[in-house]
Amino acid sequence: MIVRGMRHLIRAWRGGELGLLGFSLALAVAIVSGIAGFSDRLSRGMEQQSHHFLAADRVLKTSRTVPDVWLSTAKDFGLRTAKLASFQSMVYAGDDAMQLASIKAVSDDYPLLGNVGVSVELFGAADMRSSGPKSGELWMDSRLYALLDLPVGGEAAVGEKSFVATQALISEPDQGNMNEMLAPRGMINFADLAATGVVQPGSLVQYRYLFAGTEEQLARFEQWLEPQLEEGQRWQDVRDGQPAMAATLKRAEGFLLLAASLGVALAGAAIALAARRYGERNTDNVAIMKALGASRRQVLSHYVTQLTLLCAAAILVGGTAGYGLQWALFASLKEFISVDIPVASWRPLIVGAVTAFACTAVFAMPPVFALSKVSPLRVLRRSDEDSSAGLLASALIGVGGLGLLMWWYSDDVFMSAAVLLATLATGVLASALVLFAISFARRSFLERAAGALRIALAAIYRRRVGNAFQVASFALSLMVLSSLGLLRTSLLEDWQLQLPADAPNHFLINIQSSEIAALESFFKQNALKDAGLFPMVRGRLTHIDGQNVSDIKDIEASSGGINRELNLSWAKDLPDDNSLVSGSWWQDLAPSNSAGGDIVPVSVELELAEKLHLKLGSALSFNIGGQELEAQVSSIRRLDWSSMRPNFYFMFPPQSLEVYAGSYITSFYLPADKKALLSDLLRQFPTLTLIEIDGVILQMKAVVSQVSTAIGLVLVLIVVCALLVGVANVLASLDSRLHENAILRTLGASKKLIIRGLMLEFAAVGLLSGLIAAAGSNIALSVLQYWVLDMDVTLHAIVFVFAPVIGVLTMCSLAWLLCRQLVTQPPLVVLRQTR
Amino acid sequence: MIRVNNLCKTVVTGGQQLDILKGISFEIKAGESVAIVGASGAGKSTLLGLLAGLDNASSGDIYLHGKNISVMDEDRRAALRARHVGFVFQSFQLLPGMTALENVMLPLELAGRPDPVGEAKQYLDKVGLAERGGHYPRVLSGGEQQRVALARAFAVEPDILFADEPTGNLDEHTGQRIVDLLFALNSQSQTTLVLVTHEMNLAERCDRILIMHDGQLREESVVSSAI
């Protein structure tokens, strides 16, 4: 049966009707499998990368050493292990230079994942090393060198042991912990730890034991270890070390998935149009087959087998092309993706295959089912069967199927429903508008029109139902293109707004009020731009609505606000880059709503509020330097973590925290060529803590530009899809046009007249499609911006110019390219072929 | 072979009822060749469509090969056609995406014959187109296309052959050659032939002529006596 089916498929392919259908199917598979594969591998790669932020797959944090048997057991389970101890210690250089620093003593196997970046120049470019310092070596960060006024290669001592400071420490894989970034850092070999004499019983040391292996090995070891863990020992899983970057990539991934869904929608429209033409061109064949004795079942089986085999071929070709697309996407992002991308899995191909079969079932099968109903009497008496019959049912099946596919891809009911509703609205609006416009044009102009215009109007009216479908599908493709184009611009603008060229790339904390004037003067002297000074007090959230936070079981363990000390701040006015989601700022609080007595109002960041299930009016207790502070949530704020400005989870009114001893924080932009100023800054303000995030910002900017390249690549595919819809649109009516125009030419119509009529007709289709697409894309974009992407809604009037122009140009060009045979083939040949 | 009792066909067109066939009855014996002639619009093609089970009658019965096809559904009628009926059409009705050989193979495949290729080649040879099996209809002349159609019709060795204006799209000379071939093949295979035509000289080559006029069989004549 398959061999026979193949034979039939080859025959049908030679007949030329399957080319567009097969190509559209293969394109749908390529887009979906390519993008699914890309995002699948990128997610897995990022997960691996996030393991690098831990320098391991799992970490056991403890304040004291663990029994040796734990490590030997881990090795028995097949895990690799390393250990490190971190503590604060004075580092001495020369006779009188000394500085408190955070020292990390690492074993030879450290890091298990990722690399340590070092340089022989202060603040220089990192040279990546797979292990830490050897015994006798001390690696210090550039700040510590500056504070100690020591050159690289100089001698320094930690406790009782002298070291040669051989390298400037630029980056550590596990430096994500902000607390560790605050103090200047140094790294020594674990073997030298005892000789320093710094770690004594009772010393404040944190030990970290690193483990790496397969998920199964880790799970088995965790199962063994867990019952033995004591208070103060934490088994740490992978947590994303860079939320801003993750958010950016997640947004890009969401965009790509959306683009894939819309690509499939367009490919689906092309498939539906191509299948419709395939059905029409096979109507006579089916009548002949039936006259020769084929049953309805045989006809169905013949065409279903043909489509199934075509689908399989499309999966093969599209899957290969999808792999190529994955490769191209990774190639365009290669500078950003520093981790090894895992090998491609079968999942994207399965997604592509399901897409192909679903598209075939919902878009291509309805015309084939209609074929099985063709009357064999057609062989004797050709009747113009109503080609619009079943159009609505087919369209509904197609749209429903598409909705399910989108839901499956995005796992987001809301986004799928929004896109689908926009699609449906466009379809219905387009069809209604076209039918109205055609009737209006016929009533108003047909009698008075002459020449090409009359031919065009008559042709449009004759094919009004088909034209309505064509305009709807082409309008949809233009709408998708303009929506994605605008969205891309909007996303990039959004990112670029968040990351202007002079985005702060260094943070300074621990600024005392006495240092503010001198610091501002330093900034001014060196023409540095700061983000303003924000007051800050360290405190811990202890109770929510009277319940101890450690007893609240359903709060996500990952909630950043409950397990550590937080930076609390106060401000009279709402900071510029914050926006209120609910509640009111201090000035607008009604007296009855403002917390009275000793209870102060507090504004909470939105995501933290959601994680901690906080609402307006929730009662919070804070411990600030041993003193209790009672607060009540008076507002919830959305803030932009990507802004690189100081941001705070909790903000209070000025008078409520001013009594606590606090300090200030600021961020500022330092160009790369002024990095040496940091040494001067730290010498002048030795108590300040400097945090360098310029590397992260550079990485984020690279992501933005490279993600934009990847999106551009996907947009090219969408353009191909839109063109396919255009081609399918033009081809849909080619056969009947051939016949009609052959008759017109036989009756004496000139080629010029026919071409003009044709161009007018397609220009009208393009113009209407463009106008509808412009309206539709503005609506769709507003919905996406407001509800899905959390962006400000903006209307884009320019699309009302671009979309119609592109519509007219595309339709006319395609009509010219594809319909030339209307005037080049001799009328007699055409009439013979088309009867 | 074919028996028709009080056959009527009525269609509604433009809101009006139109009687195309008005109670026709006749019988065609196995091996007979019968021409149905009449003016354009007389109902010839409608009658042919009903006889071949391509359409449903409004009333009356048609017995084909002893079976009442008026009570059969479309699939059963198709199965009957696959086993017992061959067709030749005015406009050849070859499938454009298939070669001449593949066109001839089609009914053989539908009938589930074991060697469609061999049998199709044999019939293409009989119509003198053995060398053109790989050609598509578009590169064949009208006469050649009709010869392929003849090969296709006879390949399944039907009991009944329906021919609808088989020379209607051909010039006189080619038409004559096709008719000769049709009757030669018919006589070889002893097939019952039902031929719809408006050409009396073609009709006269049949054993009997049925004349259609205004939806009725006005005259049934045996050719020899008519002549």
UniProtKB/TrEMBL annotation, chain A:
Where do transmembrane segments lie in this chain?
A: 255-275, 307-329, 349-369, 389-409, 415-438, 468-487, 710-732, 753-775, 795-818
Any one Pfam family here would be FtsX
Membrane topology is: Multi-pass membrane protein
Superkingdom assignment: Bacteria
The entry's keywords:
Cell membrane, Membrane, Transmembrane, Transmembrane helix
Location in the cell reads: Cell membrane
Q: Which InterPro entries match?
A: ABC3_permease_C, Membrane_comp_ABC_pdt
Broad class of the protein's primary localization: membrane
The residue ranges of the ABC3 transporter permease C-terminal domain are 259-376, 713-825
The protein in question is named: FtsX-like permease family protein
The scientific name of the source species is: Zhongshania aquimaris
Automatic annotation (TrEMBL), chain B:
Keyword check for RNA-binding: no
Any idea which UniProt keywords this protein has? ATP-binding, Nucleotide-binding, Transport
Q: Which Pfam families match?
A: ABC_tran (PF00005)
Q: Which domain of life is it from?
A: Bacteria
- Name all ABC transporter domain ranges: 2-227
**GO molecular function terms listed in the Swiss-Prot or TrEMBL record:** ATP binding
- Protein name according to UniProt: ABC transporter ATP-binding protein
